[in-house]
Write a structure and sequence with these properties.
The structure holds two protein chains of two kinds.
Chain A lengths: L5 H8 L12 E7 L4 E9 L5 E9 L2 H14 L4 H5 L3 H7 L8 H18 L13 E3 L4 E2 H11 L4 H8 L9 H18 L8 H21 L3 E9 L2 E8 L7 H16 L5 E4 L3
Parallel strand pairs in A: 7-8
Antiparallel strand pairs in A: 1-2, 2-3, 4-5, 6-7
Helix pairs in contact in A: 1-2, 2-5, 4-5, 5-7, 6-7, 6-8, 9-10
Chain B lengths: L3 E2 L10 H7 L15 H21 L6 E4 L2 H15 L5 E5 L4 H12 L3 E5 L9 H7 L4 E7 L11 H10 L3 E5 L18 E5 L10 E5 L14 H4 L7 H16 L1 H22 L3 E3 L10 E6 L4 H9 L3 E2 L1 E2 L12 H5 L4 H4 L2 E5 L6 H21 L6 H6 L7
Helix pairs in contact in B: 1-8, 2-8, 3-4, 9-13, 10-13
Classes of the chains: A alpha+beta, B alpha/beta.
Chain lengths: ~280, ~400
């Protein structure tokens, strides 16, 4: 038996805003009978772009029904601009979490919302396969959907992808392709991240300076020490310790364990610290 | 609240008579049956008695009974033994609707270089015997087919299957875990070489099973160690559970008539009642011969896990063939093999009754389930809209 939170069970047993809406301003639908879950989302949006009402119809398990119910609750009273920022993570968080195998239920909510807002703007609802190449034929999951799920949820394994999108959960033939997409998207994410390969020298200098000024220096000053940024050459960051840090027996620990580690986390995992004595 | 327990194909309650038979072996009679002293020897005597009881229930010789830990171990031991004793044969025949104990093992063996032919079934879950016959080859080491399906209750015609397989000199294994206690089994007339059964499916405790190995069948032990079970399954015997199993088989044999009269009547009343009360419902395997206690019923437009959780609120215990209950994303492999449409497969519920099922249990399901289905259908975007259901997502190839 799945371990559901009280919130999931509450929204499953007492779904809010269930049913069909008369004359909705927008409607979005995702999923299918074949997939085992489907969601039809109705929105009533006023002239100022505020979502006045939201209703849903869901075919699916307890997680799917609860996710749909929560989605409608989260949407009511929001502007379209605010609604656009809503992700599956918000749905899952509101529910107090979902079993990882059920995360795709929250993703379905995000996708239905995107489809409904597209419909509201008068854009034609895309054919499900039109948004990119179809990768998982069993569940009709496109490459774009997979890449978006990887990016937005920081997915790290093919199993994660299956849990969030269902891709790969059928015959499994697409598993090698999912591996490739995962590796490629993770590489893109790494490049795009602060300190990634695409970061310019100026960006790196600015970010290192910011982290030293805002985080590292205040920490050292608490113990009567200080640090000065001397130079940056690529990923080599040259610093000089000041104050009580000079001559401290733990200075190397401070440089490696605090300064280098924090800069690697915040700027670039390749950063190496070198010290010059004053 | 006492639950309406209708999930007996998953596991059964331990019969009171079985419990009282096993208790002394968990307290004062703790001797090791292999010991040379009389304290252990007395336990050994009870072990022999249990073996004889099981043998009587199956109409075979006690020497043909090996006690194991479960049905899965018995299935594994049979198939692996057949392969090891005939190293020149690399082909296995089985079906697409087997229990994972056989299915997963065969998939594993494929990675080790064995070739597996998985026979399909028709829309009622029936095997094509001509296809079975054609699948047999000179290098076929073993045919493994279940006697009765755990999900649908569909019974395979084992005597006919045995006739075909044995006439070609191929070893035959049957996973009879669901059949024992529900169908009469006479191994003096049914020429299978291996048969697996599991204690907890017939009111014995979990953790004990049997592998029947016909006399003269070459056998290679799965567990190697001590000399227990005549060197065919090492490890100190689980005496309390084995004694329990002996008593459970005895009881099952005595009460098999009840399975096929009272239990069958209850199952049929449940089936009729639900079909009448719930439109767009159907029986999986309804056209085939089925176990008397099993009902796999499918409700269109709703999903199984949601049904189970709502039934659970009323203390009704059942199972589902839906994807969402299993952690996988595909509905049951059995229903898929039968070609049950997705519109039904996701909403399939299995009720499995036992000698302890009461009329009140059946009444409770008949009262509570139809409104549950209606409630979920009211939530569903597909309900009653056949065209929309088909058009909702057009990307799916199946």
């Amino acid at each position: 038996m799945w371990e559901y939170t009280d919130k999931v069970m509450d929204h499953f047993l007492n779904p809010r805003n269930a049913g069909e809406m008369e004359n909705p301003s927008a409607m979005g639908e995702v999923g299918s009978l074949a997939c085992g879950d489907a969601l039809r989302l109705f929105l009533k949006i006023d002239d100022t772009g505020v979502i006045q009402d939201a209703k849903f119809q869901t075919f699916g398990c307890a997680s799917a029904i609860a996710s749909s119910s929560v989605l409608t609750e989260l949407l009511k009273g929001k502007t379209v601009a605010e609604a656009e920022k809503l992700t599956n993570k918000d749905i899952a968080a509101y529910l107090g979490g979902l079993p990882k195998e059920k995360m795709h239920c929250s993703v379905m909510g995000e996708e239905a919302l995107a489809a409904a807002l597209k419909n509201w703007r008068g854009e034609a609802a895309p054919a499900p396969a039109a948004e990119g190449r179809l990768v998982c034929k069993c569940f009709g999951v496109t490459e774009e959907t997979i890449r978006r799920a990887i990016r937005e949820n920081d997915l790290k394994t093919v199993e994660d992808i299956t849990n969030f999108t269902k891709a790969g959960g059928g015959c499994g033939e697409c598993a090698p392709e999912l591996e490739e997409i995962l590796a490629d998207e993770r590489a893109r994410m790494a490049s795009a991240a602060p300190g990634g390969k695409r970061m310019t020298n100026i960006q790196r200098v600015m970010l290192v300076t910011k982290v030293i000024d805002e985080e590292i220096r205040p920490a050292l000053k608490k113990d009567g020490g200080d640090i000065e940024l001397v130079d940056i050459e690529g990923t080599k960051v040259v610093v000089s310790l000041r104050g009580a840090c000079v001559g401290c027996p733990s200075s190397q620990l401070t440089l490696k364990g605090l300064v280098e580690k924090r800069l690697q986390e915040a700027v670039d995992p390749d950063i190496r610290i070198e010290e010059v004595r004053p | 609240m006492k639950p309406a327990y209708l999930d007996n194909n998953a596991t059964t309650r331990v019969a009171p008579e079985v419990l009282s038979a096993m208790l002394p072996f968990l307290s004062e009679q703790y001797g090791n049956p292999s010991s040379m002293h009389s304290f252990g020897g007395a336990v050994g005597g009870h072990l022999r008695e249990a073996r004889a009881r099981v043998a009587r229930g199956l109409s075979c010789d006690p020497s043909e009974i090996i006690f194991t830990s479960c049905g899965t171990e018995s299935d594994n031991a049979a198939i692996r033994s057949a392969l090891e004793s005939q190293p020149e044969k690399r082909h296995i025949v089985t079906t697409r609707v087997e229990h994972p104990a056989v299915l997963s093992l065969c998939q594993h063996l494929e990675t080790k270089g064995y070739e597996v032919t998985s026979l399909g079934v028709d829309e009622e879950g029936r095997l094509d015997l001509e296809e079975l016959e054609k699948s047999l080859r000179k290098d076929t080491a073993i045919v493994s087919v279940m006697y009765a399906n755990n999900e649908t209750g569909v019974v395979f015609p084992l005597p006919e299957i045995a006739g075909i397989v044995k006439s070609r000199g191929v070893l035959l294994h049957t996973d009879a875990v669901q059949a024992v206690g529900k169908l009469p089994i006479d191994l003096s007339k049914l020429p299978v070489d291996f048969l697996a059964l599991s204690g907890h499916k017939l009111h014995a405790p979990k953790g004990v099973g049997v592998l029947y190995v016909r006399k003269g069948t070459p056998f290679r032990p799965f567990l190697v160690g001590g000399h227990q079970e005549h060197g065919r399954r090492a490890g100190t015997e689980n005496t309390a559970s084995i004694v329990a199993l002996g008593r459970a088989v005895e009881l099952a044999t005595e009460r098999i008539g009840e399975e096929n009269t009272r239990v069958r009547a209850q199952r049929d009343r449940l089936e009729r009642g639900l079909l009448e009360a719930v439109p767009d419902s159907r029986i999986n395997g309804g056209g085939a011969e089925r176990l008397p206690n099993t009902l796999s019923i499918a409700f269109k437009y709703v999903e199984g896990e949601a049904i189970l959780l709502l039934m659970d609120r009323f203390g009704i215990c059942a199972s589902s063939g839906s994807a969402c209950t299993s952690g996988s994303l595909e509905p049951s492999h059995v229903l898929r093999a039968m070609g049950v449409p997705f519109t039904f497969a996701h909403g399939s519920i299995r009720f499995s009754l036992s000698r302890y099922t009461t009329d009140a249990d059946v009444d409770l399901v008949l009262k509570e389930l139809p409104p549950i289905i209606a409630r979920l259908r009211a939530l569903s975007p597909f309900s009653g809209k056949e065209g929309e259901a088909a058009a909702f997502c057009s990307t799916h190839s199946h």
